[in-house]
Amino acid sequence: MADLRFGAFLAPYHPIGEHPTLQIQSDLTFVEHIERLGYDEFWCGEHHSTGWEVIGSPELFLAAAAERTHRIKLGTGVVSLPYHHPFMVAQRLVQLDHQSRGRVIFGSGPGALPSDAHTLGVDPMVLRDRQDEAMGVIRRLLAGERVSHESEWFTLRDAKLQLRPVQKSMEFAVASIVSPSGMTLAGKHETGILSLGSMSREGIRALPMQWSFAEESAAKHGKTVDRKNWRVVLSWHIAETRQQAREQARDGLMRHNNEYQVGTLAAGEGPIFGTPDEAVDAVAFSDVSTAVIGTPDDLVERIRQMEELTGGFGCVVGFVHDWANRENTLRSWDLVARYVIPQINGLLDDYRESNKFVIENRGTWQRAGEAIESKIRENERALAAAEEDEALGRPVLRGGRRLTPGVANIQPDN
């Protein structure tokens, strides 16, 4: 398969306590950081409640990120389509595509937080159907069509975008967690997939079947889907050693689980960890671990496992969290870029092959050394100096290598 792309997904998950303005600025700095490290994609979401996921408009955030970056793709992860008029979503996407010079990926979802739907007076039972309906309309608008559409929740009359995107064909992506609905929608609309379920035990169990849902739906609607557009989201915190990773992540991980995952989202139903070490052991070091807290090699192993489990995908997306402090979090993403990405994508294979060839083919070095030694012997003063060095026990050339009495092999000369 082609090289895996790497990206980051910022929901965001930020514990309550830090100055909101500074937190948003920190998130923007993070985007700059991962672009410098060579990551391919950055995603951020839309949420309106809970106090932890605080970006209400991914388009606004990504517009600021676009001004600070130059290459990295910027994905809405995701726009909750049932909460917006489709024409206005299309307008914002077009403007963002121009402001980012064609770097937008349009990710959409039905809305992840029931509290958001309640706030807006939308019945959760209609969310997925409305996402499906809105996606079809937005795709037609971005293609330049003039659209009229009557719906129970929006109306379009002879609607046409007066400005088209920079991209001739903007990539669409849909969120998928555990149920087949996201994958089925991706097949119907020929989009990419952002698999968030890979961060939960239930989602991991569902992964082996997920792609088949997309393929079946695509075939039904006369479309195709491509695994290169399947993004699998993983949680990790990486350090030089497992012990360092544990120490850096454990307190924040316990708080994230106890206060948000269980205390807020699950209304107290779920495991409440008594100690930080218990949290790390359950999440990252059990038979059903859902995150990697360890070394670059540990993350390489997990990605290989996920490739085998799924049958292959195109992009690894790391979930951005505040388990560790800011400095160690940035360091974690640095280590992934320096050691995990090149290992996964074979960027070091030719280095290793070259090194192995040199070690196993010493004749080339021997011959080069003999050439140097022959020139020394042709020069009386140089030869006298070499013989003096030998007599005094100083390093001398023999067969192109510097030798010292009692030392078998010193670095080749040049």
Report on this structure:
It is elongated and about 100 Å long. The strands form 3 sheets. It has an 8-stranded parallel β-barrel, surrounded by 8 helices. It is α/β, with parallel strands linked by helices and 414 residues long. The protein folds into 2 domains: 347 residues, Luciferase-like domain (TIM Barrel); 53 residues, no CATH class. It is built from 14 helices and 14 strands. α1 packs across α2 and α3 crosses α5.
What is the strand and helix layout of this fold?
Layout: E1 5-10, H1 20-36, E2 41-44, H2 58-68, E3 73-76, E4 79-80, H3 86-99, E5 104-109, H4 114-119, H5 127-142, E6 147-150, E7 155-159, E8 171-176, H6 181-189, E9 192-195, H7 201-220, E10 230-238, H8 242-265, H9 276-284, E11 291-294, H10 296-310, E12 315-319, H11 326-344, H12 349-360, H13 363-377, H14 380-391, E13 396-398, E14 401-403
Parallel strand pairs: 1-2, 1-12, 2-3, 3-5, 4-5, 5-8, 8-9, 9-10, 10-11, 10-12
Antiparallel strand pairs: 6-7, 13-14
Helix pairs in contact: 1-2, 2-3, 3-5, 6-7, 8-9, 10-11
